[in-house]
UniProtKB/TrEMBL annotation, chain A:
Residues 28-114 form the Extradiol ring-cleavage dioxygenase LigAB LigA subunit domain. Keywords: Dioxygenase, Oxidoreductase. InterPro entries: LigA_sf (IPR036622), PCA_LigA (IPR014159), Xdiol_dOase_LigA (IPR011986). It comes from Marinomonas communis. This is Protocatechuate 4,5-dioxygenase alpha subunit. Transmembrane segments: none annotated. SUPFAM superfamilies: LigA subunit of an aromatic-ring-opening dioxygenase LigAB.
TrEMBL record, chain B:
It comes from Marinomonas communis. InterPro entries: Xdiol_dOase_suB. The keyword Metal-binding does not apply. GO terms for molecular function: ferrous iron binding; oxidoreductase activity, acting on single donors with incorporation of molecular oxygen, incorporation of two atoms of oxygen. It comes from the Bacteria. It holds the Pfam family LigB. Keywords: Dioxygenase, Oxidoreductase. The keyword Oxidoreductase applies. The lineage of its organism: Bacteria, Pseudomonadati, Pseudomonadota, Gammaproteobacteria, Oceanospirillales. This is Protocatechuate 4,5-dioxygenase beta subunit.
Length: 130, 281
């Protein structure tokens, strides 16, 4: 979630990756970046906890990585382009990773996309959702 | 003197690079996507550009959270396709145009656009997928490429107005280069998509179509769209569309010679447009 003094904080189901999120997530995102190297992916898979402990991340962030909780990772300052490096290391498609943040299963999400995606109607402002 | 007569806009969806690389682009499932580039493949042969200035965004590949340049220009001799976590794409090395790139950098900075110079970088799907969509599978890319990377990952991205103005400044700088070169500017990214949160999967077709409709004659109006508006209307990643405005800014009066739009490709609305400059009367 963005702070409520930001004009974009009310966009439903959306976190804008701004400076505040970037500060919060710096070490988390740099950890994700390390997974670009095969040798690091291997080390991570061998012992995820030990690998994470090399990074000065918060305990909450480490746990969210272990849980593959993408919603929580976004809330803790993760950026999606960084986070998908974790799901890629797991062999998941971007769509599969993305779908876990919605209230749909991966199959339902893909089906929604095939039908033309999530419509903007009702999804621009919170008042539309009441 | 170098000159510019044409440009194009296209999405740069990573899945399509993969489909091309594994040789599946001719499969019937993918016809609705790739058929929209058949015209483009013929067109580019006739155009035969010497250099493409390819505007794209890096996706946490070359730039991580250590350095976040708003506008970066690749001045190297060559750029390798990046390993984005599952091996580099099997596509040719991208040859740069360092002499032109440095000339553009100097002119742009002297005209108020403080470019970040990059002398060594790998290029990700944002740059290589458009090349593959237009040129197909080739032994080597038929022209040189100057990567122009725009930050659209960390808020705020440069404004639409700034991007349109950068395109105009680019054109001026291109026309001041003494060598006879046919230069194109490509704007990539978009169209509507959102890759995060409960609202992931957002697609706004009327918004995308309206953007393409207005790009030819009403780009100054499009340039006023704020990043917040892009996000609200067309998803967090929908704001990549400012990169198409750099392309548009680099061209004078144009005619639209081709357009293609398809939903969905994985999480994204695919858009593609080609502009040629109208001959002066």
């Amino acid at each position: 979630m963005n702070s409520n003094n930001k004009s974009y904080h009310d966009i439903p189901g959306t976190t804008v990756f701004d400076g505040e999120m970037a500060r919060k997530g710096f070490h988390l995102n740099q950890f994700c970046m390390s997974l670009m190297k095969a040798v690091n992916r291997e080390a991570f898979k061998q012992n995820e906890r030990a690998y994470l402990d090399q990074y000065p991340m918060s305990e909450e962030q480490k746990q969210a990585v272990l849980d593959r909780n993408f919603t929580q990772l976004i809330a803790l300052g993760g950026n999606i382009y960084y986070l998908v490096k974790i799901s890629s290391a797991d062999g998941l498609s971007v769509a599969a990773a993305v779908s876990t943040m919605t209230n749909l299963s991966t199959e339902e999400y893909l089906d929604m996309m095939r039908q033309g995606g999530r419509p903007p109607e009702g999804n621009r402002y919170p008042k539309e959702q009441q | 003197m170098a000159n510019i007569h044409a440009g194009l806009g296209t999405s740069h969806i990573p899945l399509l690079g993969r489909i091309i690389d594994i040789g599946d682009s001719a499969k019937p499932d993918w016809t609705p996507v790739f058929s929209g580039f058949e015209f483009t493949k013929q067109w580019i042969q006739k155009q035969a550009p010497d250099v493409i200035i390819l505007v794209y965004n890096d996706h946490a590949t070359t730039f991580d959270m250590k350095f976040i340049p708003t506008f970066a220009i690749g001045c190297a001799e060559e750029f390798k396709p990046a390993d984005e976590g599952y091996g580099a794409r099997p596509v040719p090395i991208v040859k740069g145009a360092p002499e032109l790139a440095w000339h553009l950098t100097e002119q742009l900075i002297l005209n108020g656009f403080d470019m970040t110079v990059v002398n060594e970088m790998d290029v990700d799907h944002g740059l290589t997928v458009p090349l593959s969509m237009v040129f197909g599978q080739v032994e080597k890319w038929p022209c040189r490429v100057i990567p122009l990377a725009v930050n659209t990952v960390v808020y705020p991205a440069p404004t639409g107005e700034r991007c349109l103005a950068l395109g105009k400044a680019l054109r001026k700088a291109i026309e001041q280069f003494p060598a006879e070169l046919n230069v194109q500017v490509w704007g990539t990214g978009g169209m509507s998509h959102q890759l995060l949160g409960e609202r992931a999967g957002l697609i706004n077709q009327p918004w995308d179509i309206s953007f393409m409709d207005r790009l030819k004659d009403n780009a100054t109006e499009l340039a006023k769209i704020s990043q917040e508006q892009y996000i609200r209307e067309s998803g967090t990643e929908g704001s990549e569309m400012v990169m198409w405005l750099i392309m548009r800014g680099a061209l004078n009066r144009v005619k639209e010679v081709h357009r293609h739009y398809h939903v969905p490709v994985s999480n994204t609305a695919l858009g593609h447009i080609i502009f040629e400059e109208e001959e002066l009367p």
